[in-house]
Amino acid sequence: MHFSVSNGVKQGGVLSPVLFCVYFGGLLHKLIDAGYGCYIGHDFAGVLAYADDVVLLAPSASAMRMMLALCDEFCGDPARGKNI
């Protein structure tokens, strides 16, 4: 099912971070579970997210490609919307 989005949350709106967490929570968990990114000691630091920004950190080009492939898979999955 396709639909057009004609308006969204205004810049600085208090709802924006909440909607970001709802929408991207699954992606963040997939990236963390895959473990392809960088680590600080034993703590995973491969994906950083704040408000409506995401940063991917990888120790190599191949690890970054794997992380981007997970992002691509997540964004192209039509079943993802059923979990929201």
Structural class: alpha+beta
How many runs of DSSP E, i.e. beta strands? 4
Within the largest sheet, what's the order of strands? Answer: 1-2
Shape: globular
Strand content: 5-15%
Rg (C-alpha, Å) = 14 Å
Distance between the termini: 15 Å
The quaternary state of the protein chains shown equals single chain
Question: If helices are DSSP runs of H or I spanning 4 or more residues, what is the number of helices?
Answer: 2
Query: Roughly what percent helix?
Result: 40-55%
Could you list the spans in which at least 5 consecutive residues all have pLDDT below 50? none
Layout of SSEs?
Layout: H1 16-34, E1 39-40, E2 43-44, E3 47-50, E4 53-56, H2 61-76
Antiparallel strand pairs: 1-2, 3-4
Could you name the key traits of this structure?
4 strands; globular; alpha+beta; 84 residues; two-stranded antiparallel sheet; 2 helices
Structure description:
- The protein is of the alpha+beta class and 84 residues long.
- 42% of the residues lie in helices and 14% in strands.
- The chain contains two helices and four strands, in the order αββββα.
- It has helices at residues 16-34, 61-76; strands spanning 39-40, 43-44, 47-50, 53-56.
- A hairpin with a 2-residue loop joins strand 3 (47-50) and strand 4.
- It is globular, with a radius of gyration of 14 Å.
- The two termini are 15 Å apart.
- The model has no long low-confidence stretch (mean pLDDT 84).
